[in-house]
């Protein structure tokens, strides 16, 4: 059994074909505006299975504040949801005589963490020149690791950019 949970961004999902039987796309942002088309011929945003942006979206001024204000009850529910996916996968494997099944869950929002901030990002005051973006999806991953021991990597990250994506945000 192989259950993989990743963080990523909508535009990156346009570079892969979604397996409707074995991939779950979860929106963790407040909005899902992405017009990119995936190899299936659909908009990536039309392939989203679950929208949890209403309680996982970032409504805070800072990422530290976001982390500290994540609702424990909501996060317990979300962890339970992920455990239910694993339980379903285990049952499916048992029903298929132990045949290994790979399931991927993607927690998605907008930011490409491997790109430097744009002039517009710097102008807005959110970032300084030369910085890489930071994102609340990685704060969700930190929360899941800190509170449930669940390690959630970034999907398909370039080895040389791991330091950028996995840096300590606060």
Task: Write a structural description.
The protein is of the alpha/beta class. 35% of the residues lie in helices and 14% in strands. The protein is built from 7 helices and 4 strands; from the N terminus they run βαββαααβααα. 23% of the residues are buried. The mean pLDDT is 90.
What's the quick description here?
Helices cover 35% and strands 14% of the residues. The protein has 170 residues and is α/β, with parallel strands linked by helices. It has a 4-stranded parallel sheet.
Order of helices and strands: EHEEHHHEHHH
Low-confidence stretches: none
Inertia-based shape: globular
What is the topology, as strand order, of the major beta sheet?
1-4-2-3
Tell me the structural class: alpha/beta
Instruction: Give a quick account of the main beta sheet: strands, pairing sense, barrel closure.
Output: 4 strands, parallel
From the N-terminal CA to the C-terminal CA, the straight-line distance is 35 Å
Which range best describes the helical content: under 10%, 10-25%, 25-40%, 40-55%, 55-70% or over 70%? Answer: 25-40%
The number of helical segments is 7
**Strand percent estimate:** 5-15%
Radius of gyration: 17 Å
Features:
alpha/beta; 7 helices; 170 residues; 4-stranded parallel β-sheet
SSE layout and pairings?
Layout (H helix, E strand, L loop, with lengths): L1 E8 H4 L9 E5 L22 E2 L1 H4 L6 H6 L3 H24 L6 E8 L9 H5 L12 H13 L13 H4 L5
Parallel strand pairs: 1-4, 2-3, 2-4
């Amino acid at each position: 059994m192989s259950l993989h949970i990743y963080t990523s961004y909508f535009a990156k999902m346009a570079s892969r074909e979604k397996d409707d039987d074995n991939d779950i796309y979860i929106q963790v942002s407040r909005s899902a505006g992405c017009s990119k088309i995936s190899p299936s011929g659909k908009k990536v945003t039309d392939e989203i299975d679950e929208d949890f942006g209403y309680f996982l979206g970032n409504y805070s001024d800072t990422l530290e504040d976001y982390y500290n204000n994540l609702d424990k009850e909501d996060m317990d529910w979300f962890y339970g949801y992920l455990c239910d996916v694993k339980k379903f996968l285990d049952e499916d494997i048992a029903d298929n005589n132990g045949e290994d099944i790979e399931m991927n869950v993607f927690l998605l929002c907008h930011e490409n963490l491997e790109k430097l901030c744009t002039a517009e990002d710097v102008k807005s005051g959110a970032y300084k020149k030369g910085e890489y973006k930071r994102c609340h999806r990685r704060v969700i991953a930190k929360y899941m690791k800190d509170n449930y021991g669940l390690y959630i990597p970034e999907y398909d990250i370039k080895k040389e950019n791991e330091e950028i994506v996995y840096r300590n945000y606060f």
